[in-house]
Amino acid sequence: MSERSTERQPASAVMWFAAAIRSTLREAGQGGWGAAATASSAALGSILLVLISVCAARAYSIAGAGNGALTSGLNDLVWAGIVMSSSPRAMLIMAGSFGLWRAGIISNRLFEAGVGAVVLGVAGGTTWMSSGIWAPDGVYSRLIFPIIGLVWIIVVSAVLKRAPATRGEW
Description:
Layout: H1 10-27, H2 31-62, H3 68-84, H4 86-102, H5 108-123, H6 139-162
């Protein structure tokens, strides 16, 4: 097996994670929330694919061409894309949290933490200041919300591992 075939891209990893959520929620009778997880992961995956492509083009060919204005404009486009990705990220958290809670798989405390993460995710879509923590390239977009999302993924992954399977192997 080649090294390349084992690599995971962020966009596809998000979709696989959402597929695990969807499968668990469908088996628990919460298929609507699972569908919302699938839709939000598709939107998020699309945005991430575009952002990764722009970053790669900027890093490997455009920046070396010496066109500072174009490079700066693409940089601003990437940060604006990260801010706009807050909505599908928050929707993925919401679909997972609400669906797992409605299915009785997570506790009220985990559900409340998920709702808090959703609110903080939606707040990430308002980071349009020109500088500081609330700028598109500020600490909130670079560090705070990504850490919140990572913690949510780790917790939900643990929940999905212990969730009861209702049907047998394929």
